Amino acid sequence: MAYFTAMFGAAILLGFINLLMAKEDTCDLYATPGQSLTLPFAYERLTNSHILRWVHNNKTIFYRKGKVSTGKPEDITSNGSLVLKKILFSSQGIYQVHVLHPNSTSAKTWTRRLCVLDKVSKPQLSYTCDFSSMAVNLNCHVTKPEGLVFSWTLDKETLKSETKQTLSISFIDLKAERSFTCDVANKISKASSDKVWPTCPPLLSFKRQTVMAVLAGGGGLILFLLFVIVGLCCLLRRNKSQTGPRDKGELRIWRVKREKAGKTTPLCQTQT
Ligand SMILES: *[C@@H]1O[C@H](CO)[C@@H](O)[C@H](O)[C@H]1NC(C)=O
Ligand SMILES: *[C@@H]1O[C@H](CO)[C@@H](O)[C@H](O)[C@H]1NC(C)=O
Ligand SMILES: *[C@@H]1O[C@H](CO)[C@@H](O)[C@H](O)[C@H]1NC(C)=O
């Protein structure tokens, strides 16, 4: 009984810790370095007689009471929003705004957490053929996989249950040749790998085999024809040189012909 109580207590404690951690991790707003962002706060009835204060990580970055004493007037819209012109990693954290009536009672408060993330870069998809398990192992390579969401596409269909960085597909499930892509995403961006067609030897589909056979056959035929042509050409030349010129006039013409021919058909060098 004591054991169960302890377990129950531990489970609750763990759950509570998880909840705290999750809260710590989640942000209300996301941005990437270099972009500009107007924090989505608005107090439409804002007038110049209101007291407006913006706080970033417990530090006052804007204060207006009649006149602006901290920050710049152009950093605030007419609604009281704060404009972050060029986001840096140091821009992240908690933003709070306090609007006070002229009689110093609170008119509106607002708190949001901003996270600044790099855009994801294009993942590199690679695979290995594992013959012991008869499966293709695909790997969606990225430099920093922390906090990224992975997804997989087979042909044009998203594999809903596959959300890990790696994917294993048995040879049996790949009877025909099929294409894979992997996607990575974070809160602000998404990128896809190039398409990959895994071809472990047992995966060579009928289609590909035929294509290869046709290609190989065609290549062979062309090569064969080339040999025949070259052979015939050389044979003809040799015959010609054997039945060479008879008189001097003929010889001159023949030489010119030879020179021209020699330049254009270097494959058929025959000895004179
Ligand atoms: C802001 O102040 C609160 C309470 O004083 C503190 O718990 C919190 O850690 C501070 N936050 C930052 C970012 O300094
Ligand atoms: C003021 O707020 C309204 C409604 O939220 C919005 O449509 C408008 O663009 C805001 N104006 C400025 C200058 O931020
Ligand atoms: C302060 O001013 C606001 C707006 O003018 C008003 O609604 C509120 O009742 C006032 N509060 C006090 C305590 O006078």
Tell me briefly what this model is.
By secondary structure, this protein is of the alpha+beta class.
Helix percent band: 25-40%
- CATH homologous superfamily (4th level) name of the largest domain: Immunoglobulins
- When the domains are counted, the total is 3
How would a textbook summarize the main sheet?
6 strands, mixed
Structural class: alpha+beta
Overall morphology: elongated
- Mean pLDDT across the residues is 78
Terminal CA distance: 110 Å
Number of helices: 3
Regarding CATH, which class of the largest domain? Mainly Beta
Biggest sheet strand line-up: 1-8-7-3-4-5
Low-confidence stretches: 8-23, 203-211, 243-272
Radius of gyration: 38 Å
How many runs of DSSP E, i.e. beta strands?
15
Question: Which distinct ligands sit in these coordinates?
Answer: 2-acetamido-2-deoxy-beta-D-glucopyranose
Report the CATH topology name of the largest domain: Immunoglobulin-like
Strand % is 25-35%
CATH architecture of the largest domain: Sandwich
Which series of helices and strands comes N to C? Answer: HEEEEEEEEEEEEEEEHH
Protein traits:
Immunoglobulin-like; alpha+beta; disordered C terminus; 6-stranded mixed β-sheet; 4-stranded antiparallel β-sheet; 3 domains; binds 2-acetamido-2-deoxy-beta-D-glucopyranose; 272 residues
Compile the SSE list and pairings.
Layout: H1 2-25, E1 29-31, E2 37-38, E3 51-56, E4 59-65, E5 67-70, E6 83-84, E7 93-100, E8 106-116, E9 124-130, E10 135-141, E11 149-154, E12 157-158, E13 166-170, E14 180-185, E15 190-192, H2 206-242, H3 248-264
The structure holds 2-acetamido-2-deoxy-beta-D-glucopyranose (3 copies).
